[in-house]
Structures are given as C-alpha cells and as structure tokens.
Amino acid sequence: MHLTIIGGGIAGLATAFYLKKKSKELGREIQYALLEREDRWGGQIATQSVDGFLIEGGPDLLLAQKPAGIQLCKDLGLGERLIPTNRERQRTFLVQNGKLVPFPEDFSLVPSKFWPLVTSPLFSPFGKLRMGLDLLIPRRKDEGDESLASFIRRRLGEEAVRVGGAMLAGIHSADAARLSMQSAFPMYVALEQRYGSLIKGVRAMKKKRPSASAAFQTLIGGLGEMVDTLTTRLDGDLRKGVAVASVRKVDDGFEVVAGDQVIETDAVVLATPAYVTADLVAGFAPELSHALREIRYVSTATISLAYRKSDVASQHDFEGFGFLSPRREGRRITACTWVSTKLNYRAPADGVLVRTFVGGAGREELVDLDDETLIAQSREELKDLMGLTAEPLFTRIFRWREGRPQFDVGHKDRVDQIEHLAEQVGNLYVTGSAYRGSAIPDCIAQAIDTVDRILARGMGA
Ligand SMILES: Cc1cc2nc3c(=O)[nH]c(=O)nc-3n(C[C@H](O)[C@H](O)[C@H](O)COP(=O)(O)OP(=O)(O)OC[C@H]3O[C@@H](n4cnc5c(N)ncnc54)[C@H](O)[C@@H]3O)c2cc1C
User: Fold this and answer.
1) Using 50, 70 and 90 to split pLDDT, how confident is the model at 193?
2) Long-range contacts of 312-318 (CB under 8 A, 24+ apart)
C-alpha cells in the first residue's frame, strides 16, 4: 500500500511519524511519500540560531494541558530537552491608555484569586462586582455555538470582554466577536456546564492542574529541534521543494501532480492550509473544495529584536513575560514577549531578546509593510511603552501571510461537513491547524487520529 502526505509542517511530519510507529507495531507495511513545497521542513515552526541568540519566527511553546506535544517530544527521545517557562517572572501586562498595567496574579480570563483582582487597576469597582456575578448566573441552556465575546459578556461582563477577550482572541490572532467558543475554547464551555460558574470551575481545575511553571514547555534548542529530530527518524520518500499542483482521482487511487512528477498512490493525507487543500481537490470533489474555502485565514508577522544587555538594562527591567496591546489602543504591535526573561537558553549572558507581534484580525495590512518600516514601527512602540531606545544588535522578521486559520462561530459544523465529504471520496484525509484546534499539540493529536483512521480502514493489512 502507498500513501502520500502533502505538507511538511508539524501536521504532515507527525502523520508520517505515527504512521511508521503504529503500522510497525501492528506488523503492517505502508510505503509513503511526504511532499513539502518549501526547501525546509516544519512549516510555521521556524527556529534560527544567530550569534548566541535563539530566534523563534513562529510558535515557541507547547501547552502541557494538551499532552500530544510533550508526548511527541518524549516519543522522539527529547524528554530530557524539555524546559518550562521561568516561573518567578510570570507577570504579564496589558496596554491600557498607553501604559503597561499588570494582569492580576493568576489571571487567565477568569479570576481565580480574590485579592489580586480586587486590587487590580485593570477593572473598575463595578467591573469587579460584575465578574463576581458569575457565581450566581445560571449555566447556559442553549447547546449551540457562540462567540468568545458573547460568552465572556454573558458570564463576566463587558469589562472582562475588554481584557480577557483581548487576551484569548490574541492567541488565535482573531476577533473576539467572531471567534467560536466551541472550537477555540471548549474547556471554558465545559467548565460552565459542569460547575455552573467559571470561577468555581477554574478553582476546581487549579487543584488538578500541573503547577503554573510547567503549564508551557519548549525544547532547549527551540521547537525546530522537534522538526530536525522528526525528519531524521522518518524513512519514507521525503521530498522538499516539491509544490503539489493538483491531485487527480483515478480508478484505483490518486495521482499527485507536482511539476513533471506524478506520484501514483492509494491514499492521500492533505496537511496543507485549507485554501491550498481546496485548490488541490477542486477537480474531483467540488463540494469539499467549497466547504474548505469557507475557512478564513488572517496574516501576521513576528519581529525579533536582539539587544546587548548593557544597552537596555537601564531603560527597562524586563521583569515579566511581556505585554498585550488590544486593538482599541491603536498601537502598531499586538503584543510583545520578553523572550530572554520568559525562557532560558534564548540569549547569551550579555543579551536580551524581545519579540513583537504584528497583524491579525483588523490589523492585517501592517504585515505588508516593508522590513524597514516594520522594524521602525516596533521600535517606536517599544520606546513609547517601555522607554527602549537602544539600537538592536540585529532583527529578524517572519511574515505569516494567510497563516492563521480563523475558527468563526459554527466552525465545528463546517469541519464535520468537510470530514464527511472527504470520507465520501474514500482514502482521502485532511489534517492540520485549520480543523480541530490550531496549537501544535492539536495538530499532533489530529495527525494521530488520521493515522488511526487510515489503519482502521485496513491499509497495509
Ligand atoms: C507567529 C505564530 C506563533 C504561534 N505560536 C504558537 C505556540 O506558541 N504554540 C502553539 O502550539 N502553536 C502556535 N502557533 C500555531 C502553530 O504554529 C500552527 O498552527 C502549526 O504549526 C501549523 O502546523 P500545520 O502543519 O497544520 O501547518 P503549516 O505549518 O502551515 O504546514 C503546512 C505546510 O504545507 C506546505 N504546503 C503548502 N502548500 C503546499 C503544496 N502545494 N505542496 C506541498 N506543500 C505545501 C507549506 O509549505 C507548509 O510547510 C503559532 C503560529 C504562528 C504563525
């Protein structure tokens, strides 16, 4: 049996890895090809080492609550290389009226501690009381989807939409008024249903959760270490720099066409962005193609700025993980991470590394500015908000055009339909960040599910 996986981001790589692992465990024989358009593997995972600094152009952390990411590291023999974020420096700030105001301690949408919330300047006395009403408001009866903004407004009030909405929507570079609660934050929906109150639910979960310092982890050498190790473990037909132009359905399988290469194959896994997948299947599955096109994407960029510590130490203390800058503040960056405070092994002893984020819902046009302007704008914002005027040693820009899938309200129904239509074609699978969760652990969990479905159909038996 022969399978072709298109797309060599984490979704495609993890599909190949678990296909090999699981088919071997079952004594099955499946040959596969993995095709990637770019001349490097990893897709949005983009790690670079520059003069003792370690730059992440895309993702930098694995959320431990979603275990598939940490598990893949362990399956690759990288368990010893995992590191947590630095616990003692956990403070994060929100830009409010042009100033950096700290989030209350232990605040992640829902206040789990009383005093830090009561003393926080982020909310008015009325806003704080309104959040407390969550303890009394009955759980929602309607099982349909709703937006993040509507969910927070209903449970915690308008001020929480302003603060918590900015924080959670930012994770998806999304607009809180459009982002699906069911697809993006199913755990909060489940907490409301189970405990009837988010505050009660979060308190109960805190007792079970790993300590906050282990909540996010990464690898000493960055997430690129995961990609490099994966590619050395794969023994299939791996081809980089091969852009698939179309997939044809033929009697006994598929033909995958890339330039003058035509691969005859029994099954296809599409681990490409949904709009690429839509183009690739358009010739034989127009309805599926149409459904895939309904998943919107937005563009973002990251700008890493490396400094000499002695140049910036007197300008800012970097005591915290960084700040978020909600859209209403009108800034040209959406967030900034103080990377070398948040994580060890990211800067030399005499260095400080900072990363700004640009674009996302409502601010996409900024991504198309030229490099010089993007850097100048980030530096102006850092000067204004942090007093940082020092000249960076170097900068790195990564643009992710149409890089962030948007889980609009109703997303789960769209994905159910997409999977149903792919199933009808037979031996055709879609996987990756556009569907059931976009974090790396979600992509890996979906890859494992795809492999299980392939093996359940008896491939290689
Ligand atoms: C700035 C940023 C920060 C993020 N931070 C985090 C984080 O800290 N933690 C986290 O868990 N997640 C984070 N994410 C999300 C996460 O990185 C992505 O959702 C995930 O890496 C996507 O993996 P994927 O394999 O689905 O897609 P991709 O990585 O996009 O891979 C798809 C691949 O398909 C290839 N391809 C496209 N067209 C073709 C074609 N025609 N033929 C062949 N190949 C093709 C592409 O070149 C690409 O390599 C972040 C994302 C961004 C952009």
Assistant:
1) very high
2) 312/352, 312/388, 312/390, 313/352, 315/386, 315/387, 315/388, 315/389, 315/390, 316/386, 316/387, 316/388, 318/352
38 C-alpha vs ligand 1 centroid, how far in Å? Answer: 12
Is the whole model's pTM more than 0.85, yes or no? yes
Beta strands (DSSP E) in 277-432 are 297-308, 322-324, 335-337, 351-359, 394-405, 428-430
CB atoms within 10 A of CB 264: 13
Residue 360, ligand 1, Cβ within 6 A: no
Ligand 1 site, residue 127, Cβ cutoff 6 A? no
pLDDT value at residue 211: 56
How far away, in angstroms, is 432 Cα from ligand 1 center? 8
105 CA from centroid of ligand 1 (Å) = 32
Is the beta carbon of 358 within 6 A of some atom in ligand 1? no
- When the candidates are 3.20.10.10, 3.40.50.670, 1.10.3110.10, 3.40.50.720, the CATH number that belongs to 115-209 is 1.10.3110.10
**Of all atoms in ligand 1, which is nearest to the CA of residue 69?**
11
